Amino acid sequence: MATSKTQARAADSRPWAALCFIGLAQLMIVLDGTVVNIALPSLQRDLEISDGDRQWILTAYTLAFGSLLLLGGRIADYTGRKRAFLIGLLGFTGASALGGVADSFDVLLVARALQGGFAALLGPSALSLLTVTFTQPKDRAKAFGVWGGVTAAGGAIGLLAGGALTDYLNWRWCLFINIPIALVAAVGGYAMLAESRRGGRARFDVPGVLLVTSGLVAIVYGTSRAESDGWRSGAVIGLLAVGAVLLAAFAFVESRVPQPLMPLRVIASRTRGSAYLAVGLAMVGMFGAFLFLTYYMQVVRGYSPIRTGVAFLPMTLAVLLSAGGLATRLLPKVPPRALIVPGMVLLSCGMLWLLTMETDTAYAEGVLVSGLMLGTGAGMIMPAALNYATHGVDQDDAGVASAGVNTAQQIGSSLGTALLNTIAASATADYLASHAAQGPSPALAKRAVLEGFETAGTWAAGIMLTGALIVAVLMNTPRPKSRPASGDTPSAEPPADTQRTEPLPEHS
């Protein structure tokens, strides 16, 4: 009897042990999106990278990650999610080691692209493993609370780690730090995770892969070019137009092929579609905030990299408390929009708080207040949105549905950062031009930078509020434990434990 109880306790604890290693992998992916940012000036000087080329250290990762996510999700579905998880971790480890020893711009660029490619395999396999491991609503809510907290806080943790590693060691450790994290996650994942895969013979949608990859590359590359060339540039407009056409062609192809890369049924649900939108817009707000607050503290206020990282700690704590405490407790009890919509409103308020800040505003009155609102809002959004982005999806499609969430995160952060940075830079230039008669001065330069952040922050707040309105109208999902009434729309999905488990028919 005692042996049986011990075995039962071990079986009950195994999923939570697995969650630790899955979450560690997710932390590494999100952290790597920001940890290099603070180190970029040191890295640029060390490798003698030009101002025109430095952006590629960031966008090489973004391009590879964002454009290959859907393919990575399908590979995970067919070849095994645990296998894809472990391969992704080991590949990410090798790419990080290559970047850490890079002695030239070209080698570092290749390493960053490889990091993005392996992250595109690792991200969806990690989230799909979480989806198939936790199926009971209460446990699922707790697991996604942890996942949402890791996802939302990872960016701020990356800024802190980047500042500390750059100040006390050197920029190379911003890449080397991934090696022990990935190895621990790989060893633990090998021991604790159970394999799951889609049944049947693996057949990949090659036209879909080419169309979606080309379309996302064009859009992300066009957006990155806008930072230097401007949104009215012919090259930028052409790239964005080509990207839109390719993605439209991708949607058409997916409705015709027998085994699509992204089954349209996955995103046609009002619940999942709204969740994808919420995740993408949350990343717009959070990465825009990281950008503006980082430059405000270092350029306007004169903070060091490590002090800047420490200043983000309250935001990180707010994310963890909001996601792990508030959202986790409410997620099994309330409709998802009851968390997502207020969270997006809080993000808007955090961005609008920039309007109250001056060049000499004290930390407690400016950055701290804005960070607490941003962190609390993100912590409310991410667990609910990530949970319902894979809610009710057939287990065979868990990998590709998870890839869709990661794509929304990556594209949201990339497009949002480029868009808001371009708006900020334009507003700063206009302010300097309109005050040219005063003559150049440090005070004027700081005020111009802040003017750009305030303008872009207002745009970001408007985007967040528009998204909140769309989610409030579109996401009509009921409380998790309540069944839809007979008059409800068909898209109001039943709770996860009552979902159908038989495979849904493929589009023909």
UniProtKB/TrEMBL annotation:
Listed Basic and acidic residues bias regions: 499-508
Compartments, as annotated in UniProt: Cell membrane
Topology versus the membrane: Multi-pass membrane protein
- Tell me the SUPFAM superfamilies matching this sequence: MFS general substrate transporter
Q: Where is this region: Disordered?
A: 478-508
Could you list the residue ranges that cross the membrane? Answer: 16-40, 55-72, 84-102, 114-132, 144-164, 170-192, 204-222, 234-253, 274-297, 309-331, 338-356, 456-475
Chief location bin: membrane
Report whether Nuclease shows up as a keyword of the record. Answer: no
Organism superkingdom: Bacteria
UniProt keyword list: Antibiotic resistance, Cell membrane, Membrane, Transmembrane, Transmembrane helix, Transport
Q: Where is the Major facilitator superfamily (MFS) profile domain?
A: 18-479
Q: Which Pfam families match?
A: MFS_1
Protein name, as recorded: MFS transporter
